[in-house]
Amino acid sequence: DFPDALQGIATSLALEYGSRVERPLVLASVLDRLRVWQAQIGSGFDELLTRLRERCALSGYQVRLTSAEGEVSGTVKGIGEGGELVLMTGAGLRKFVQADEIRLTGD
After folding, report:
1. Residue 42: other Cβ atoms inside 10 A
2. Does the global pTM surpass 0.70?
3. Which of 8, 47, 87, 89 is least enclosed, having the fewest CB within 10 Å?
């Protein structure tokens, strides 16, 4: 069960998979895939970037993120050439390589 504010928008691995998922197995799977992609960072960054862009679930959505500069709101435009999150804000296009938290705002 999710809090009321998350009903209808949140999901979990258990819901998506159809049964409870053991966290150690999930972590092992993520680390295995990371090892594959890590080997390609120096030689296959373009492919990695393409796949990251294909899987960016935030593109087109309004978000609020917390970075070292504070809270910033805007529309996610996608992933930049260096792998950064590209956000259209009221002050123009901004790129972020790090954020402590990113939340959909629904605006």
Report:
1. 7
2. no
3. 8
